[in-house]
Structure formats: C-alpha cells, structure tokens
Amino acid sequence: MRQEVFEIVQKMDKDNIRTQMALQCAPLITGLKVANLLIIPSKNEKYVGAILDGTDISYIRLAKSECKTTFFLYREERLTAWLMRAENRVLLNEAGYSGIILSDILQTIQMRYEAYVQKGKAFPHEIGVLLGYPAEDVKGFVVNEGKNYLYSGYWKVYGDLSEAKQLFYKFDRAKEALIELVSKGIGIRNVIESCSSNLLLDGAA
C-alpha cells in the first residue's frame, strides 16, 4: 500500500462499514474477483443490507458471534460461471458438493463455516474456490497443510506465481482507489453502482 494511502487509512474509522468494504472487498467491487469475505463488528451488521440491497452484489451471512459477523459477498452470474469450470467442479465434488446449483453450494458452505466458528469443526478450505482462488492453490494448501507455498499474498500460491502476483498487484491498486474515494466522502454504494455499470459495459463489448 502506498504511503499516502496508508496515512489516509490511519485517519479513517476502522469500524465504519464503508471503510471495511473498501479495505476488504475492493477486488469484488471492481470486478477483479467473483467473491469476498466481509468481516465486521456485529453491531454494524444492519448496514450491509442497506448498502448492498438493490445492487448486483449479493450476500449471505456465514457466521455471527457477539463481537463480529462474517458475510460472503458475491456477484451471482460471475460466481456461477466460475464454479462451473471443470477444475473447480472437481475440487468441490471431492469436498462433498454433489450439485451444481449455486444456492445449494452456498447453503452448504454456510453450514460448514458456521460449524467451524461455533463448534470448532474443521475449516472448510473449499471456500477458497468460492472466493475465486485458483483450484491448484486451494488444493496445494490442503495437501501441504499451508506450508511449502511459493508466495503468500491474498492467498498462498502453489501454482502460477506470475499470474498470482499480477492479480495481487491489481487487488492492491483497487483497494487504494476505493479508499481514496471513500475518504473523499463518496458513498460506497455509489462506488459499487459505478463499478457495476462499467462491468456491464465491458461485458457488452
């Protein structure tokens, strides 16, 4: 993160939902990723719907504790297309997901993630595929138990290092851009709608 942006972040309210969306979900908002987790103080849960309802970003609550709540944010069409890729289908099948209906997949990951948070069950590593991580990296993480990775950024890389580094660079730039916009008083919903319109234009082209 550039120094000037880092200094902006230091002055921002870290609990503010708009700040957290910019920090955590910039790759999704700008169309670089199909999904993102959003982890916020539970007291701010009510603001998620106020910001996202009516936009093209959908969300489900994965788990809630007294202190924090975890949401899964995604663009439905893009996530569905991503999960239909052969390598992703294979990984999900190996993880016990037999169907291809997105709502069923999300219901299962919600149950598994909540069981991890509330009951200490095994972490559902397949969530990495739902978050847009390459299947090779998700499988590599599981097989190597999080060790022997080539690089650690937004996730641990076991496959194409060059492509991952390029993506991570784009994610950083997206985060910086959103932080600067939010710090200037531009509403995060306005940013989402603007990015969504640009994505639609890109798709039409």
Ordered list of secondary-structure elements with their pairings:
Layout: H1 3-11, H2 17-29, E1 35-41, H3 46-52, E2 58-64, E3 68-74, H4 76-83, H5 86-94, H6 102-119, H7 127-130, H8 135-143, E4 151-152, E5 156-157, H9 161-183, H10 188-204
Antiparallel strand pairs: 1-3, 2-3, 4-5
Core attributes:
205 residues; alpha+beta; two-stranded antiparallel ribbon; globular
Give structural notes.
There is one protein chain. This protein has helices at 3-11, 17-29, 46-52, 76-83, 86-94, 102-119, 127-130, 135-143, 161-183, 188-204, and strands at residues 35-41, 58-64, 68-74, 151-152, 156-157. With 205 residues, it is α+β, with helices and mostly antiparallel strands. The protein has one domain (3-204). It has a three-stranded antiparallel beta sheet with strand order 1-3-2. Strands 4-5 form a two-stranded antiparallel sheet. α2 packs antiparallel against α9 (161-183). The two termini are 32 Å apart. The mean pLDDT is 92. InterPro entries: DUF3793 (IPR024523).
